[in-house]
Amino acid sequence: MKIFAGPSSSHLVAKINDCELSRFPNGENKVWIKEDCKDETVFIMQNFCEPVDQNIIQFCLMVDAVKRMHPKKIIGIIPWLGYAKQNKVFRRGESLAAEVVARIVSSSGVNEVILLDVHSE
Question: pTM (2 decimals)?
């Protein structure tokens, strides 16, 4: 079993990770998972708090980096789900942002997701 945490959980990162999260000068995120994850169950924890968009992308990049090592399973742990308040369309022309984020997360390659704080059931 391996556990990785994104920068939104910075108080845990140094204690449980062997990965490098950095940024290019143009602002793009870069992820390097240093630990071998082949045939392991891997947990990736990341809050989708501010900066929300950046944290979502970092989570997806971490999932992708782990997925390329052929783990047994990837489980995403999202203690706080950004865009969860946008779980209903109130006016014609609005996006259903919570659904969009759910599709992004599910298409990232995770096998399971654990949510701890969502806006509504």
Answer: 0.88
